[in-house]
Amino acid sequence: CDPIDLNEQIVAATEGLESEDPVVQAFLETVRSGVAAGTVDVAVIGEWQFVAGSSLDGGAIEFPAGQTVTLIVDEAGVASGSAGCNDYNIGGIASNGAWPVDGFDITAEPCEFGDIESAYLNAFLVVTEYSVDDGSLMLAGADVSLSFARIVNEE
Questions:
Q1: Are 40 and 95 within 8 A, CB to CB?
Q2: Of 28, 113, 123, 141, which alpha carbon lies 20 to 30 A from 87's?
Q3: Which residues, other chains included, contact 86 with Cβ-Cβ below 8 Å and sequence gap of 6+?
Q4: Is 66 in a helix, a strand, or coil?
Q5: What stretch of H or E contains 73?
Q6: N-term to C-term CA, the chain
Q7: CB 127 within 8 Å of CB 34
Q8: Which region holds residue 143: left if phi is over 0, alpha if psi is between -120 and 50, else beta?
């Protein structure tokens, strides 16, 4: 059973159901978000391009002009991407606003802007939450933020 399809079916089946009981209402919202099914938030799935961010030391994370830095979140909740010179993979399931980091792998290629790349990758280690709004993904945690724009593939 595909977890994305299952979550969509749950959302459709519970559409219109509301309750004055706050516990029941919280349960319905949790089920609709996919948390009960252990699925990644469908709003996060896709390809994202880094726009701006702040590092652990509070400085801005700014890559050289023309450098593409990406984040791709798949249906299993694995995040991966290119940090400029190196690729990375992050385990965890982003759902209900929480961004847990469960495993982090990075390639180790030399990089002329390694300090910027390190600031970007180290920020992921303290990210704890996310929000998606109008084609933008914002990751945040202890004094860091990473902002991404959705990459729209025209087919």
A1: yes
A2: 141
A3: 106, 107, 108, 109, 111, 117, 121
A4: coil
A5: strand 70-73
A6: 27
A7: no
A8: left
Q: Is 94 in contact with 44 (CB distance < 8 Å)?
A: yes
Distances (CA, A) of 130 to 84, 96, 99: 22, 9, 6
101 Cβ contact list (under 8 Å, min separation 6): 90, 91, 92, 124, 125, 127
Let me know if 142 is exposed, middle or buried by CB neighbors in 10 A (0-12, 13-18, 19+). exposed
Angle CA(138)–CA(143)–CA(144) in degrees, nearest 5? 40
Residue identified by tokens 């704890």 is 128
User: For residue range 4-34, what is the model confidence (pLDDT) as tens digits?
Assistant: 566 667 667 777 777 787 777 776 676 666 5
- Give pLDDT tens digits for 91-111: 877 777 888 887 889 999 999
